[in-house]
Amino acid sequence: MKILIVEDEAITALSMEATLQDHGHEVVAIADDESSAIRAAAEHTPELALVDMRLSRGDCGLSVARHLRERGVVVVFATGNCPGQDLGNLALGCLHKPISDDQLVRSLVVAEARARQVGNPPPPPPGMHLFAQDDASHPQG
Amino acid sequence: MQLGKIVEDAASEIFVFSAEDFRFLLVNRGARANLGYTFEELRELTPWDLKPELTEEQFRGKVAPLIESEGGDLVFETVHKRKDGTLYDVSVHLQLLMAREERVFFAAIRDVTHENALNLELVKRQAELEKALASREVLLQEVNHRVKNSLQVVTSLLQLHARQVSDEALRQALMDARNRVAVVATIHQRLYMSGEHSMVDVGEFLSQLTQDTVRSLDIGARIETRLDLEEEISLGIDQAVPLALILAELVTNSLKYAFGENGKGTVGVSLRSQSDSLTVSVWDDGVGSPKTCRTLAWGPSWSMRCRGKSGPPSRRIAGRPARNSRSHCRKADRTRFRT
To answer: Starting at the edge strand that comes first in sequence, how are the strands of the sheet with A2-6 ordered?
Structure first.
């Protein structure tokens, strides 16, 4: 999958990038705030974005998710503070930090299956929860 | 007259006025003193002259129901104006009475300036407290977020290091360290979710920890877990962290080594409370013995007993040499250590 990482903590972003590349994904860009995320999405058309809640320059992951959704990018939050309410219209689900390599890889298997609407997707690994989806909210990326 | 003196000396401000022309017939000392008028001056006034919030029409309207029903009483709050123009809050208790064929109003009035000021202060304090509580919540959320981000950085660093080393044993050691950070994070998460912020429900969290460990090793289909956990036992964070680390080691050890590569089996965890201690047992039915069991007794003395097989994890925690035997839990071999 073509993946955009929206994360302002460089070490975390680097570790995610290495793990994703090891498992055959292409990390198209790492963005640390809203404007760079939107630019990267326009330039690289990622299929999926991992989005942190609190970003550089006080930017918020919710707003980034809204913009990315409009461009048809599947969003999965990766944050220490997963939103309590169901945000199915914004994102597929949320990964609770700290996230291990294995959790990340298995979460992406789940996200990929859901995004491509494969029948019988695997259950989410520990540390991942899925938002309830209405059918219109996730067109194919 | 005795009754007249009681009324004159009463702590309340007492007013009697005619229900026909609303002229004052009696105003006691307390009322005169607070208002600053003599009775001679008051004789020329009416209740609405003292009540700047009410016009004559409004006052008459207010008392009309009493006149219509020829009795009853009425309680209301308003403001009185002193002779010198200053105001004070009053609570009025008004009654219509019959006195020698004449209908009169009897008003007992309390100066509630002090009460109202206290109430206002109370409302202000309440608002301040609510604000402080809200900012405490925000602060906690902020700290929680930062803790988890920091744990993520630690996790990421360990993973990046593990990626760079070629020595498999070293890589495994880094991964083990990462897994232990994950266990600490699990407790932190639970602590924050509970809303309690200092205590965790041991049963709930042992259940989550066991299930997460099974799921993280991706062997859920082969290994069955049997949990027998007493409910509503809480532990402080300082005790929950070491307990969680030990339990995670024991469960991971069972899952990794008790069933071989593709073996099936059961891992069980039980939690029991005694009057002043907790007993946590971890057992499996894998290789080595019909049933391997380890029991931790967790008491207030901060000491812990480990019964049963002393595998590598317990040895490391205990700082004692490992024993090679896997003993049956009923004839438990004992290792003692302190945390």
So the answer is: A26-31, A2-6, A48-51, A74-79, A93-96, A128-130
